[in-house]
Design goal:
Elements: E1 2-10, E2 17-22, E3 25-29, H1 38-51, E4 58-62, E5 68-74, H2 78-87
Parallel strand pairs: 1-3
Antiparallel strand pairs: 1-5, 2-3, 4-5
Length: 90
């Protein structure tokens, strides 16, 4: 089972979290800067920690050098991923 999501990353945010939905994408705020892959690493950590999965289960499948990314997460249902994302909405 693999879950997928389109996200927009906001680096250098005051805290890590989900800031809601922007059209078809989820806005993810990360404290890490968009330098040397730090925001990508923080993005993977955010989802792995939130879903209690190993980092190896989370992949950025497109957008590694963009704020707009597509992620895939192995070992979790789409519903569980959506719950994590909805739980962070304001």
């Amino acid at each position: 089972m693999t879950a997928r999501a389109a996200i927009k990353v906001q680096p250098r945010a005051p805290a890590d979290g989900v800031a809601g939905r922007l059209g078809r994408e989820w806005k993810i705020q990360l404290r890490a800067p968009a330098v040397d892959g730090k925001a990508n690493h923080a993005c993977i950590e955010f989802f792995a920690r939130g879903l209690r999965l190993p980092r190896s289960a989370v992949r950025i499948v497109s957008g590694e050098k963009s704020r707009h990314k597509r992620i895939e997460i192995d070992g979790v249902s789409q519903e569980a991923l959506e719950r994590l994302l909805r739980g962070g909405e304001s």
